């Protein structure tokens, strides 16, 4: 396995971001390219959650995937301006970088998935419906994910997160502009989504309303609502738990990962 950190440069933007590329040696005799997952960790748009970064990348690698973690712009980077739209550009940029390096990185361009946790789930869900805005940017690149995976996502800023607008260091004049539910359309990608029913940070209504939107637009989806579990469980296993923090190890919720792998495998071409 090898890892590569690549800064993302988008036009003349001052917003900083980078990707960590996790690559495994392809064990296939035929040397076939591997499916890939782009991971958008959570952190409330304030920081990048480490427990939803490398542990998740390694889990996917163990299942035969290449993995890319997006360290998108967050408030801890020191910016006082709204960077939310720019983060979508960062996701699109990853598809361009993958296209340029697919042979060296042994990546299957037809099987690229986007995954997001919490606020990163908001980013992933938003991209899932807006990828077509980038399709003429570079006509050689397919900006559409094969599917989207959302883990306890924020889908609307009026559904319990943030608790108040002071969460953000920058002004937001209209929260509707960032309503991932309202943006669902016929081009939105198939979605795997999960949440815990008693999530006290990002209420489960975010997932329920998003599923309703997917259903109305006849977008294929699979949803799992687990009875109990704190926010930010990540893999819900020892691999992603904080040291000696048993509250982050929930075997029943940890079933989301193998179930998700099964969902992905049914879509691989």
Task: Describe it.
Strand 5 (107-117), helix 3 and strand 6 form a beta-alpha-beta unit. Helix 2 (84-105) packs across helix 3. With 269 residues, the chain is an alpha/beta fold. It has helices at 54-61, 84-105, 118-130, 205-216, 251-254, 256-265, and strands spanning 2-7, 18-23, 34-40, 66-71, 107-117, 147-151, 191-196, 221-226. The mean pLDDT is 95. The longest helix is centred in the middle third of the chain and has 22 residues, at 84-105. It has one domain (2-265): Alpha/Beta hydrolase fold, catalytic domain (Rossmann fold, 3-Layer(aba) Sandwich). One of its GO terms (molecular function) is hydrolase activity.
Write the layout of secondary structure elements.
Blueprint: E1 2-7, E2 18-23, E3 34-40, H1 54-61, E4 66-71, H2 84-105, E5 107-117, H3 118-130, E6 147-151, E7 191-196, H4 205-216, E8 221-226, H5 251-254, H6 256-265
Helix content: 25-40%
Low-confidence stretches: none
- Total helical segments: 6
Major beta-sheet overview: 8 strands, mixed
The CATH homology group name: Alpha/Beta hydrolase fold, catalytic domain
What is the N-to-C succession of helices and strands? EEEHEHEHEEHEHH
How much of the sequence is in beta strands?
15-25%
The dominant shape is globular
Q: Round the Cα radius of gyration to an integer and report it.
A: 17 Å
CATH class assignment: Alpha Beta
Q: What class, by secondary structure content?
A: alpha/beta
GO molecular function: hydrolase activity
Organism: Weissella bombi
Protein name: Acetyl esterase/lipase
InterPro entries: AB_hydrolase_fold, BD-FAE-like_dom, GDXG_lipolytic_enzyme
């Amino acid at each position: 396995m090898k890892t590569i950190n690549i800064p993302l440069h988008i036009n003349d933007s001052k917003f900083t971001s980078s990707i960590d590329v996790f690559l495994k040696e392809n064990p296939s005799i035929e040397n076939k390219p591997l499916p890939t997952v782009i991971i958008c960790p959570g952190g409330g748009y304030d920081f990048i959650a480490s427990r939803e970064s490398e542990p998740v990348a390694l889990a996917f690698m163990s299942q035969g995937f290449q993995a890319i973690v997006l360290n998108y712009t967050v408030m801890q980077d020191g910016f006082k301006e709204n960077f939310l739209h720019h983060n979508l550009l960062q996701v699109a940029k990853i598809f361009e970088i993958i296209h340029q390096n697919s042979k060296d990185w042994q990546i299957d361009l037809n099987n690229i998935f986007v995954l997001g946790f919490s606020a990163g789930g908001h980013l992933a869900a938003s991209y899932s419906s807006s990828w077509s805005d980038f399709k003429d940017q570079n006509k050689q690149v397919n900006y559409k994910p094969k599917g989207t995976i959302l883990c306890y996502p924020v889908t609307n800023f009026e559904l319990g997160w943030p608790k108040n607008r002071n969460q953000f260091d920058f002004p937001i004049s209209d929260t509707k502009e960032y309503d991932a539910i309202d943006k669902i359309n016929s081009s939105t990608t198939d979605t795997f989504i999960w949440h815990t029913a008693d999530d006290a940070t990002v209420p489960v209504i975010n997932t329920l309303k998003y599923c309703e939107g997917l259903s109305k637009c006849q977008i294929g989806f699979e949803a799992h609502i687990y009875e109990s579990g704190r926010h930010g469980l990540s893999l819900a296993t020892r691999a992603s738990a904080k040291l000696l923090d048993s509250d982050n190890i929930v075997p029943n919720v940890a079933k989301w990962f193998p179930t998700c792998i099964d969902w992905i495998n049914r879509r691989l071409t």
